[in-house]
Structures are given as C-alpha cells and as structure tokens.
Amino acid sequence: MDPNTGHPRRWGILGVLVFSLLAVVLDNTILNVAMKTIADKTVGLGASQSELEWAINSYTLVFAGLLFTFGVIGDRTGRKRMLFIGMALFGLASLASAYSQDPMQLILARAAMGIGGAAIMPATLAIISNVFPPSERGKAIGVWAGGVGLAVAIGPITGGVLIEHFWWGSVFLINVPIVVISMILIATIVPESRDPKPSKLDPVGVVLSIIGLVAIVYGIIRGGELATVASAEVLVPTLVGVAVLGLFVWWERRIDHPVFDVRSFSNVRFSSAIGMMGIVFFAMMGGMFFLTFYLQIVMGFTPVQAGALMIPFAAAQLIFAPLSQRVNERFGGKLSATVSMAVVTLALGSYALMDQNTPIVLIEIVFFVQGAAMANIMPPATTAIMESLPREKAGVGSAMSNTVRQVAGALGVAVLGSVLSSNYRGEIAPALAGLPAAEQHEAGESIMATMGVVQEMGDQGRALVQPAFDAFVNGMHVTALVSAVIGLIGIAVVARWMPGKPRPVQHAETKEPAVV
Asked: Transmembrane ranges (predicted)?
C-alpha cells in the first residue's frame, strides 16, 4: 500500500469500521433511555441512582483502563485481529447484560462489555490512520465521527421502541446481530496492520490507573449518596485514588514504555485538544444523565418519545461532523473550537432555565445547537491528537484520546450525578418529613425512588409528586450551572493554548515594508 495514496478499498474499509463502532456507541445511547425502566422495581431491576451510575461507569472505567494496553497489543499483534476479538467479547458480554438478574450482575456484565469496547475503539482509528493518506485522513475521521452521530441518533429511538415492546434486556440483545455482521465484514474486507516497532506492555501502569480511577469515582458517587463530602467514606477513597494516580504519573515518567505517555502533553497541540475533548465529555455525559429523568419523569414523555426528542442533537452531529474539518481549515482550530465551546457552554447553562412548563420546541432547538457545536469540536480535536503522534503509533494515539474522553465522561456522570443527588436529597427532605425514617431515606435517594414510594402509597402518595418534580428541577438547575462552569474552563483552555490557523510563510525578499 502506497502511504501517499492509501489503500485502494479504504472507503469500504471505513464503512465496515463505522458499522463495527455502531454497536459500542448504540449501546451507550440506548442505555440512557432505558435507565428509568431498569430503575423500576416492577418491570426492571429496581436499581438505585448510584447503581445506575455504576452501570454506566463500570463500563467506562474498564474501557478507559484497558484502552492503552489493547492499543499497544493491537499495534503489536495486529489491529484487525484485536478488532475481531473485541467484537466477539462485546457480543458475549451484551448477552450477559441482557439476562442480568440484579443490578450487581448488570454492573459486572457492563464491565465485561468495557473489555470488548477497549479492544474495538483504538483499532478502528488506528486502521483509519493506516489505510488513508494524510490528505484524506481528516475527512475520513469526519465521516467516522458522523457515523458516531448516526448511532447517537438511532440509539435513543431504538431503545424507546425496544423498551415499549419488549423487556429491558432487549436494549443489550440488539447488539448481537450487529456484532455478528461486523465480524463477517471485518474478516473479509479489513486488512491487517501492525507497528513495525511496537511498544512493550506496561501492566503496572494499567493496574495503577484502574485502581486510582475506580477509587476516585467511588468516593464521588458515595458523596452524592450521603449528601456530604466530609465523611470518611468519601474522603478516604477519593484521596487514595488521587495518591494512586500521582504514583501512576510518576511511574509513567520513569519507564521507557509507558501505557500513557504523559510526556506527550508537552506538545501544545496535543494537550489542548485532549483537554478540550475531556472537558466537553465531562459536561456532556453528566448532562445526559439528568436529561433522561427530566424528559421521562418531569416532562412525562414515554421512552420512545424521549428517544425521539434526542434526534435533533444527533442529527446536528450527523450533518455538521463531516463538514467540521472544512470549518477548521477555513477559520483555524483556535477560533472554531473557542466559538464551539462557547456555544456548548451556553447550551449547558440553558438547562438551568428549564422547568415543567418549558416549550418542547425550545428544548429541541437547544439540543440541535448543542449537537452542532459539539460536531465542530470532536473531529478536529481527534485529528489534532492523531497527527501529533507518528503514524505507526496510531493505536496508542487513538487510545490516549479515547481514554481521556471516557475517563472524563465517567467523572462527569459521577460528579454531576452526585451534585444532582445531593441537591435532590436536600430539596425533597421537608416533603418527606411525615414518613417513617426508613422510607424517608429510601425516597430521598432520587426522583425514581420517590416515585416508587408514591406508587406504593397510592392516593396518599400523590402529595409527594409535585415536591419531587420541584426538587429535581432545582437540582437539575444547580447541576446545569456546574456543567456550564466546566464549559467556561474549556473555553479558557482552548483560547489560551489551541494553535490557530497556520499563517503562510513570507520570505524576506517579498515581504512588504511595515507602514509606520
């Protein structure tokens, strides 16, 4: 294959890779719609809000913890082989998730899905970088991101249809046929590629990163459950996690084959793109967590309707992601990313103005605008990250961008979910004062728990419905403002460090004299 022209079947290969990625992205967007049903004691597993957070975070933590190792293994043993194995693992774990009998089984099965996802994601971008020439790579990554947008678009509506017509496990079972078709296409169309000088494995770094991240996320989620950060149950695991991650950074700087090469952050283009991506996913994943309950419980939409309402967000990504590279080339990374981050921040802040009476048209406009802005952030950021590293290290580069994205998303769900939980518990407490102590604690955990108690109490529980809605909306407002503040930090990072549009070089002999 000529590196200047690329693989002759590169666009067909890209189609297979996008289809393979469909299962991974589809699953996460479907899960958002299914959370209310999984939390239901009658038709679901009766999962608490913290268990729902762990169902999301168990996947993302394992996924993020293994991305680098699997990126290196794929570079060493073959990216096609790693992609094929990852699809098989993901399909088997999806089956286990579908037939989980309690929340803990679902959490463990989701963690197993994270293992498969960690093998799939870096392999797709690494193969793209190897089969496309540099001149077409940005466009290819834009199409790849558009495919992700397509999955985001069809995920919620597919999840809603499945939830209304089948049992909750069908949202995981839908992955199986996609996995089977993908494996057949991978085996017949995708070429094998390897790094001629692969990195060594770093098991110590992998273990330290997983321990540190799990400890921090556990502490944050526990803080939301207890509605305080002063408890030893919150402080001890959080501080242990920070200390372990500090040890992880020290270890990675010390060895010559790090699983996460922290020295790459000395490259301004790389570090600013990574930082922007992390901040966007922190705010977005945390925001999507509360929007699910807002649409289905407070606004009263069915799962299908709630899924359909997310289409403008996904449609905007599908429309604008393939065009983002052209915008980036026209205006430069700094300007386009700063404006896009500002729009995302305004969209996140606008959720602090929504309540039970917000017109649905206004919500749809906000979703579309937020999706369009995010579409102009992710592909250029991904391209900047991939082009900051040598081509033969494409698997590791993909793993680094996805690790930051997934870790930031997990922390977003944990932090913003805890902010929401803590505020809700404080706001609903006066309305629950007349209940027995055990029921007060259970009903105060989340709006789903409150509505569960309302169902058990029958007519007597109706008086709790409006206070629960008010408490949730107030908690959502605080959470939205916190996510908007995170977005402001992202604007500052991009405006300060993201490189701008390259200026054409002017030679001394043709340079115009300065006008005084």
From this structure: 12-34, 54-73, 107-128, 140-159, 165-189, 201-221, 227-251, 272-297, 303-323, 335-354, 360-386, 476-495
